[in-house]
Amino acid sequence: MNSLPGTICREWLKVYFSPRLHGKVVAMRKGIAVSPGVAIGTAYVIREIFVNPNTKRLEGSEITAELASYETARDKTAADLRSLEKKVAAQVGREQANIFAIHQQILRDGAFTNKIRNWIVQEQLTADAALHRLLGEYTALFAKTRDEYIRQRLDDIRDVIVRICSHLLDVAKLDQNSLKGPLIVVADELLPSQAVALGEIEVRGIVTQAGSQTSHAAIIARSRGIPAVSGVKGIIRAVKTGDTIVVDGRDGHVEVNPNPETLAAFRKLEREFFHLKDQLAENRDLPALTADGTELRLQANINGVNDAAAAHAMGASGVGLYRTEYLYLTHSDVPDEDEQYRTYREIINSSPNHNVTVRTLDIGGDKTVSYLGHDHQEANPFMGWRSIRISFEHPEFFNTQIRAILRAAADFPNGNVRIMFPMVTTVEEIRKLRAFVRKAYKALLAQKLKVREIPLGMMLEVPAAAISIDNMLELVDFVSIGSNDLVQYLMAADRDNPKVSHLCEPLAPPVLTLLHNVIGACNRANVPVTLCGEMAGHPKAFLLLLGMGLRRFSMSPAFIPSIKQLASQVTIAESEQILQSALKLKETAQVKKYMARQVEQLAPNLALLDI
Questions:
Q1: Pick from 451, 460, 463, 498: which is nearest to 482 by CA?
Q2: pLDDT reported for residue 373
Q3: Within a 13 Å sphere around the CA of 127, how many CA atoms are in the beta-carbon half?
Q4: How far is C-alpha 270 from the chain's CA centre?
Q5: Which residue in 119, 220, 403, 532 could disulfide with 554, CB within 3.0 to 4.6 Å?
Q6: Has 532 been annotated as catalytic?
Q7: Quick check: is 216 catalytic?
Q8: What is the per-residue pLDDT for 29?
Q9: What pLDDT, in 10s, does the model give residues 176-227?
């Protein structure tokens, strides 16, 4: 494959690191680079429900229609809550379903609805502005109490108001017809439901005010191969729908309404970025081999069927991580067994070679659903009640998912379908999980439903599990390393906290040492090991992982062609030598600088796609 001219990188440097461009000052906003590349498009601002509510005063002729809209949204909310209460009571438990009974009481409260109606009629407020005012009143009122239980009820009121607003505003639906050209989505945060809606339109880039390299927006952007920047403070106020916006997802810069000279320079970079992507995509049908012929497995991380199709298109050998939580996060209520079975079956059928590793529900931390009892804020949610800890507490709910996965896998006897459990910490948990699956398997057999035994593995994210990896390997069929969480747990730093997120660096020497030990232990025990965290798709990290003995990688589909090309430029011996040199370095900055030089020497064009 031909490499693009080395002038590309020089062009990037000229634009990014010169304070002036063609004699004019270039003013840029800085954020966190989360998905590489350059994109230019028309801004579409998705305003979070209570960021800038519609404050225009209604005309007298509009009041009746606004009241009707509110009543319709209220009725839909009531129907949602009744359905949720019924499903959660059946699948999870009566205690967990009570939260939705409380929400229905709030919705029926006379004072709640009368205030909204009065403000629409008497003060000619829009319904969403009236709801915003009501939440403000409740917030001020509840702030005066020291009773934590009462203060937590504000979350219930907010949930009800947000649900009404979602029906009023349909915030997840984007209208591209009124805008010209490809869109750059700008949002405070990108919710899973909004991210799903993006699959229906041409999105060229994403910019968010909040978030990190592992936020929903970042994951969606990388899976689709579109440039994205998160953590851009004040961007939601600085941009309006229709503005021209530039997104540099490599260095984390955003330019709003650039001058003609700046725009022309970025258009050149954008063309080069898409040309490089097209070039790399040509290797989709080639095997993933190192320069000395060692075979690698490059698999995809996916959230749904569209991502599975992208995995096919990018030449993935399978799906190394299917995040089932997106089914729950985007579902209007609780998906039952048959719904899950149909979804898993469709995913397996759409995936390359019917090769899929299904991760069980990984809820908690930054991803919550109200019907599992997350009606209060944990002090340390990433280290609290999440993942299999929730599954163990709700065995019937967990059983529904296990049964659905086993049933779907049985429909593909020639496929390689595996179940992976997140956040495994102890040997006791593995034993308990294996017994749980065995019980579900026997129950399906007793019902004379089609079922087959499939491999069971653990997602290694907790340092305690990494330290005791030799004991774990005796009980699992495979290991998948979740580097995103492993890094933040090892470094004791919340990746979403901007004050400490700089510590969450996968190239930090302690991280490399731990990964080297874990991969070595798995290889010695002949237990298949994959790394499915975001670092698998980063060129600098890939070279080090290859030198550690890793041969299975799972990443965002869009990164597979670039990693395949990089692999073809290096031998195993070279990667081992690079690793040994990197392990002698004591500072993260030294490792990053050293690895940037290695990537530049091996595949200069890929520097464009690294973060």
A1: 460
A2: 55
A3: 25
A4: 25
A5: 532
A6: yes
A7: yes
A8: 87
A9: 455 666 889 898 877 655 665 565 567 899 998 887 776 767 777 887 788 9
Q: Is the pTM of this model over 0.90?
A: no
Q: Which residues contact 5 (CB under 8 A, 6 or more apart)?
A: none
Query: What single-letter DSSP state applies at residue 196?
Result: H
Compute the distance between CA of residue 41 and CA of residue 426 in angstroms, rounded to an integer.
49
CB 35 within 8 A of CB 226: yes
Instruction: Please list, residue by residue across 383-407, b when 16 or more beta carbons sit within 10 angstroms of its beta carbon and e when fewer do.
Output: bebbbbebbeebeebbbbbbbbbbb
545 closest CA partner among 569, 502, 514, 568: 514
Q: Single out the catalytic residue among 216, 253, 516, 538.
A: 216
State the burial class of residue 416 (Cβ atoms within 10 Å of its Cβ: 0-12, 13-18, 19+): middle
Please give the domain boundaries of the chain with CATH numbers for all domains.
12-48+174-269 (3.50.30.10), 60-169 (1.10.274.10), 297-561 (3.20.20.60)
Q: How far apart are CA 392 and CA 382, in angstroms?
A: 17
CA angle, residues 429, 430, 433, in degrees to nearest 5: 85
Q: Residue 124, class by beta-carbon neighbours within 10 Å (0-12 exposed, 13-18 middle, 19+ buried)?
A: middle
The candidate with the shortest Cα–Cα distance to 308, out of 367, 224, 226, is: 224
Tokens linked to 582: 């990197």
Classify the phi-psi angles of 273: left when phi > 0, otherwise alpha if psi is within -120 to 50, otherwise beta. alpha
DSSP 208-247: ESS--TTSHHHHHHHHHT--EEE--TTHHHH--TT-EEEE
Strand partners, 206: 185, 228
Strands (DSSP E) along 305-463, which ranges?
Answer: 319-323, 355-359, 416-421, 456-460
Q: Exactly one of 103, 167, 532, 538 is catalytic; which is it?
A: 532
End-to-end CA, the chain? 23
3-class DSSP state for residue 19? coil
